[in-house]
Amino acid sequence: MKENSNKVLSFPSRVPAKADYQRVKSNYSIREIKQLFGLSERTIRRWTEQGIIQATPAAEANDYIFDFQALTQFRRVRELRAQGQSIRQIEAELQGQLNLFRGNEGGKLSRLLTPFEEALLLHEQGDPKAAESYLEAISEGDNVAEAHCNLGIINKDRGDVGKALDNFTLSLKHEPRHVEAHYNLGNLYFDAGELPLARLHYEAAAQIEPGFSLVYFNLALVHYKLGDLAGALKALETYKQLRQPDDEEIDAVNQLLKVMQEPRSPIQ
Questions:
Q1: What is the pTM of this model?
Q2: All structural domains of the chain with their residue ranges
Q3: pLDDT digit string (tens) for 48-100?
Q4: SS3 at position 102
Q5: What is 28-104's CATH number?
Q6: In sequence order, which ranges of 20-143 are alpha helices (DSSP H)?
């Protein structure tokens, strides 16, 4: 297999050459939350409809938009699941926190955006001042790991790979279990051809969040390029199970699975 490990893969329609970098955002859809945290759509909808996690209706029918504050709640869910708690136990804890909050709330209060939240909005608007705002958030200790992670995306897009590497590394220094930082470091090493290091960070991301579907796609590519066909097939099957893609994407991924099992002839 090693003699074929450098074979060029040509990807079927709807399948990217590599799942892209992931930044922390100000808004997430149900699909994105499901993709990041491995929660069922039914659970996400139930918590939203019960008011356990706050969201706003999206423009698309039957969808919701979750803000950064909701994202922190989903990260708490991730931590509780890592501790061995069931979904029902986690739901009870979230409900208890909600009741406590409502009991102490004298009415709905508006609040100012934090420096990090302001940076998120600037980033999503394509404003070059976003980088400066992330640095301000870091200096004020506001979501430091997230700010470094997103600053790494900006520096990567600017072509400054060295700074991006520093940012993702600093993100992990502040939060060793930061999934997006591990995943983005994996992508950075993947693009640089440092495949063993890419695999290391992809596997770390998958260990922290086993339900993060995109990491398994890239992990499959790394395994394949390193000559580990069994690992590649296993990772891609996991990706299919977690992502539950539509019929067209399933066909494309199945073509990719077939490609991986045909090591002799290069793909056109």
A1: 0.80
A2: 28-104
A3: 998 889 899 888 778 899 998 899 899 989 888 888 899 889 988 888 776 65
A4: helix
A5: 1.10.1660.10
A6: 30-37, 41-49, 68-82, 87-104, 115-124, 130-139
